[in-house]
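[Q] Does anyone have a clean structure-token version of this?
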Amino acid sequence: MAKKNIIVIGGGASGLMAAGVAATNGARVILLEKMKTPARKIRITGKGRCNITNTAPLVDFIAHFGKSGRFLRQAFAQFFSSELITFLEGQGLKIGFERGGRVFPADGDAPLVARLLIDWVKDVGVELRTDVSVVDLLIKNDRVAGVVCNNNKKLYADAVILATGGASYPRTGSTGDGYRLAQSAGHTIVATRPALVPLRTAEKVVNGLAGLQLKNVNARLFINGKRKTQAFGELSFTKHGLSGPIILTLSSLVVDALRSKAQVAVILDLKPALDDAKLEARLQRDLKKRPHDPMNSFLRGLLPQELIPVCLDYAQVDLDMTAVMLPAQARKKIRHWLKNFRFEITGYGSLDEAIVTAGGVKTAEIDPCTMESKKSKGLHIVGELLDIQADTGGYNLQAAFSTGWVAGKAVCR
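[A] Here you go.
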């Protein structure tokens, strides 16, 4: 049987996986990458540490994708986290496991993951062509026949795998080209917007808190005054607002709410382990131990130094007031602020700042077992181009690898 000719567009996680799997299964594969070097986004993911996947059970894993998770069930059934870990270990990568089921390279080296994947596709016979972008798909009678490159050169193929990524981090090459190509093949594009992105707030107090990181805090999200959800963990302040894992987790809901003109607030509980009664007891105990401490010093056991002036300003208490002089009403305000540090959310970061892109190719138009288009035969669409997105923790990268693996396998059948 003659070898199938396969073209893969895009050299990110899903594209490299698709290309390598197709070549391993006997196809003649050309991988086209618009940048000088493939896998540029892999090199910076997870703050340069590369959160590869997560060890959460399948049901929990899918839940992190919300409504879009159902589409991924078939792909995960074929290639999931355990298979990915085994594959990467087979390429020589030492794996490390961290809190929350997160899986990283043992030495936290994201560029190493990129190099191993590139070496692998070359070893299995993929022809890697860099500095080549695709400007159009060749489609005849609702079947893809190849691509037109930026040098106007046409390349023909039995199947094309579209793996150009979303529109986040455009400096890595993810500039949304794939949406236009998918549309030309008849696909519907669900409105794209930033996901896993920092939030902007109305409060100017954040300017003085930029760089401060908090651990073990709880963030409650309110939309039009109604509590929607919450997230527990780490948070950081930026010059314009809030960021960190728990904020990124909430951000997709926030983005959609703000786009619909809803009012959005995030309320922080800085002491989630203490209810009001226990927090009051803690304050009373500290007052007895250190009655003559100025409030600026008295609160250091409860708060980072940067937050003390913010707390005391809310309670209308002077920094130099001694603890013994603290009125009961002011103590009540301090207790309330510690459990209800409120921020009005006015905006969110751009796609340049987003970890992933929400929206994309409508999944109802894709066969979940093969990633093949229902609009154009022979066209397979994978990775972040699809309207699938999860919160942080390695879920999105696993989806890219899994959909790429499925497509690479399917084009050889």
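[Q] Thanks! Anything notable?
[A] The first helix runs from residue 13 to 24.
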